[in-house]
Amino acid sequence: MAFDGITTAAVVYELNKTLTGGGISRIVQSEKDELLLTIKSNKTAYRLLMSASASLPLIYLSSENKQAPLSAPNFCMFLRKHLQGGQILSVTQPSLERVIIFRIQHHDELGDLCEKKLIIELMGKYSNIILTDEKDVILDSIKRVPSSMSSVREVLPGRPYFIPGADEKVNPLTCEEDVFSERIDTVSYDIVKALYSIFTGLSPAASQEFIYEAEVEPRKTARELTQSERAALFRVFSSHMDDIKNGRFLPNVVYEEGEPCEYAAYPLKIYSSLDSKPFSSMSLLLENYYAEKEAVTRIRQKSSDLRHVTATALDRTNKKCALQEKQLQDSEK
């Protein structure tokens, strides 16, 4: 499962409950594209990990602390100047975008109250962590993106902040049935691709789940759907959106042969034949899921290394054996 808009919504729901009103006491940039914020809220210290890694963008409440580097990177120092000691006013997600916005209030150098926004974009290779002022002017970012790198949007100090392509898709949280039917009719490809191509925040995995629950043939195009199939699909779609709007999340991980293979913020009925494990929060799920995946990867790597060492030793032994046999045959002549 990709870190899609539904996963993002589940994380935002959790962060709003735990971090709103909390104060930022520590900021560490442990990796070039990763931050760890310590936030004190309701007499509890929370560690918020956010990563803008191109291969694995993430954000969740972590149980692990991270050592600060001896010399803090420039972006980290910049954030400490503007945000350390600040109070989190809100945590929001525009539409169902893979974007989380933290509104933070703090005192400036003159002691006046002001507001900043810390924004994390969880968009694969375009992921970023950006600090803006209250007017959405970019102050700095963990990854600067000049026009030579992107013709769509510059991410540089002084540039206006906006979410690229935000107007190209439909907000699924406010979509009515007539708009739903009208929009899926505009595309000629299969209904799975139609859903994640038209609606903000839906991943291919989420689209496949919706189609499965509606008992619709996934290879059909929207125009091939019967009236009853359209109605069933919208009912499933609308039910999931209602769950998101009302904070009804049931995080769970699906296991195949003892290994984690998929996760979601809702039960994955498409994998009903496999084992699944529920989690009390999305953060706990994400931390456990990626820790288990990393452990499996390490075991496989060690197994591969061991096989390579064994194969190399066996090959050398076979060569030595063949050489000795040849020498023995030559000596008998």
Molecular structure report:
The chain has 333 residues and is α+β, with helices and mostly antiparallel strands. It has seven helices and twelve strands. It has helices spanning 5-19, 74-83, 177-184, 191-198, 204-213, 227-245, 282-332; strands at residues 23-31, 34-41, 44-51, 58-62, 87-92, 99-107, 113-121, 128-133, 138-141, 252-256, 259-264, 275-278. A five-stranded antiparallel β-sheet has the order 5-6-7-8-9. Strand 3 (44-51) and strand 4 (58-62) form a beta hairpin. The longest helix is centred in the last third of the chain and has 51 residues, at 282-332. 32% of the residues are buried. The model has no long low-confidence stretch (mean pLDDT 91).
Q: Based on helices, strands and strand pairing, what is the structural class? A: alpha+beta
- Average pLDDT reading: 91
Number of helices: 7
Distance between the termini: 68 Å
Strand content: 15-25%
Low-confidence stretches: none
> So what's the overall shape?
globular
Helix percentage range: 25-40%
Number of strands: 12
Radius of gyration: 25 Å
**Order of strands across the main sheet:** 5-6-7-8-9
Largest sheet: 5 strands, antiparallel
SSE topology string: HEEEEHEEEEEHHHHEEEH
